Amino acid sequence: MKESDSIWMDGALVPWADATVHVLSHGLHYGTAVLEGTRAFETATGPAVFRLDEHLRRLFRSAAMIGLSIPYTMDELRAATLETVRANGHPSCYIRHLVHRGYGEMGIAARGCPVTVSIATWEWGALLGAGVRLMTSSWRRNDHTVVPTAAKATGPYLNSVLAKSEALDAGYDEALLLNASGYVSEATGANVFVVRDGRLFTPPSSAGALEGITQDTVERLAADLGVPVARQDLLRSDLYAADEAFLCGTAAGIVPVFSLDNRELGGAGPITGKLADAYDAAVHGRDDRYRTWLTPVTT
């Protein structure tokens, strides 16, 4: 990861190395923070952020779920996001929004801690490369009765960190997480899709899967391609018997699954390929049908 020049923190651009927080920040100790991962892509008319408003709306929803009040409006954060990308001169980049309880007092409640907002950008390639070998993790996905799985909060990501480390240590690229009932939830930072008999299936949020913005994008692209899509509970064996399977997320894009638990799934099949091509055209502004998903960085 290449460092950028500036990071936006609470209303001002500061040098990358100076974007620091106090060691007693509440979010550092207790996971009271929410985040978003967004991307800007190169287009023929300059860089544009993909589905920025949807990401910001989810940031505000996540903050509300864990009791954080964001001290900025959505319009202010939209402008700050574009300002940060412009200031760093990125043709394309990854964007990380973070809202966390800062330093004020220690203890679980810590209602007196200020809420801090930051926006960082850096140039980052596709996170998972051209395809992945998955293993089913021994760790189960967080249960919605324990933490609000619909919130993109930092604390619950320890679940993903443990699963990812287990997979890498075992020689795989990524982990598949099941929920407490044994149904497929998601990967450590991406949604899962299965292709069977020309139809797409993806786990619902009730399985512990985050309602992904790229997941929603794939569903809309599939509908325009005439591919039926359903959100329904899936078993691990549904992936074993799939015609195709892929992961999707902002950081990863659309990534074919080569194998799960050493069972070969064949890699990028025809439907995965069509969706990947449609996604690439949408994010780079080559398909006018999806122009409204792009927010130009320079206006």
Automatic annotation (TrEMBL):
It holds the Pfam family Aminotran_4. Its EC number is 2.6.1.42. It catalyses: L-leucine + 2-oxoglutarate = 4-methyl-2-oxopentanoate + L-glutamate; L-isoleucine + 2-oxoglutarate = (S)-3-methyl-2-oxopentanoate + L-glutamate; L-valine + 2-oxoglutarate = 3-methyl-2-oxobutanoate + L-glutamate. InterPro entries: Aminotrans_IV (IPR001544), Aminotransferase-like (IPR036038), B_amino_transI (IPR005785), BCAT-like_C (IPR043132), BCAT-like_N (IPR043131), Class-IV_PLP-Dep_Aminotrnsfr (IPR050571). It comes from the Bacteria. The keyword Membrane does not apply. Pathway: Amino-acid biosynthesis; L-isoleucine biosynthesis; L-isoleucine from 2-oxobutanoate: step 4/4; Amino-acid biosynthesis; L-valine biosynthesis; L-valine from pyruvate: step 4/4; Amino-acid biosynthesis; L-leucine biosynthesis; L-leucine from 3-methyl-2-oxobutanoate: step 4/4. It is an enzyme of class 2 (transferase). Keywords: Amino-acid biosynthesis, Aminotransferase, Branched-chain amino acid biosynthesis, Pyridoxal phosphate, Transferase. One of its GO terms (molecular function) is L-leucine-2-oxoglutarate transaminase activity. NCBIfam families: ilvE_I (TIGR01122), PRK06606.1 (NF005146). Acts on leucine, isoleucine and valine. Belongs to the class-IV pyridoxal-phosphate-dependent aminotransferase family. This is Branched-chain-amino-acid aminotransferase. It comes from Nonomuraea pusilla.
